[in-house]
Amino acid sequence: MKKxxxxxAVALAAALVVSLTACTGGSKDAxxxxxxxxxxxxxxxxxxxxxxxxxxxxxxxxxxxxxTIMNSTSFTDPLKCWVDLSMDMGTLGNMDMTVYAEESGExxxxxxxxxxxxxxQDVTAEELGQYDAHSSMDIYLENSSNFTSAGTEELAxxxxxxxxxxxxxxxxxxxxxASGALxxxxxxxxxxxxxxxxxxxxxxxxxxxxxxxSGYPVRYEMDMSEIMQKLMSDAMSATSSDSENSExxxxxxxxxxxxxxxxxxxxxxxxxxxxx
Length: 276
Hints:
Elements lengths: L6 H13 L4 E3 L1 H15 L3 E14 L2 E15 L2 E10 L5 E11 L2 E8 L2 E7 L1 H4 L4 H11 E12 L2 E10 L1 H11 L2 H7 L5 H4 L6 E8 L5 E7 L1 H14 L8 E11 L11 H5 L3
Parallel strand pairs: 1-8
Antiparallel strand pairs: 2-3, 2-12, 3-4, 4-5, 5-6, 6-7, 8-9, 9-10, 10-11, 11-12
Helix pairs in contact: 1-6, 2-4, 4-5
């Protein structure tokens, strides 16, 4: 299969991955703990995050596995972020990308580097949300619900309480709108109506670990397989593509650290020079 035939499906998956990031319902104690963690997250001024995504996809009998690791550092006042993304696409090769973003008055500037070349563009706050891990975390916390306690676990930074919940179907669309990814979906779903694609979505499981010592949400895990399967199948069916022989599984985890203590960074001069 030619690389181009994977384009829409891979891009749709990538758009959802970088944008879905998660508090009500469930048991009273669990909800109160997660709500407190969400409030603490809103007050964070800087943080580091590592996102890991594993995707397996089969289209028309041919398979593709993609592993993505995204390291990021973000600051909120003024807003700026750094992202280093590495994607292993198996037979399709690898892709490495570095992104810097900064607040400039009422606007935002995005610097994207690939293969030694830099592209500079002005973006909206919604578009910037795709790369700002702190903003993404807020979106997840605002749109998840029905949390229950699932015990405790020892993580690298200490003991954390584990909570399981869901992001409701209607909230998944809200999260995509807030992050700016929905602006991209029109071009990625081969002409399918996004309103139809997001109707009748099921719940998406989410697990959050809250550090006992600090109260910060330090890890997130999401299984987006069912949601992604429906979106891909509906998009392909709407354009008369073969959806019956198309399958996708997608899981993502995000680990957060160095709250209010992230190491500052400087945007490279070669990236700034590309704006001239």
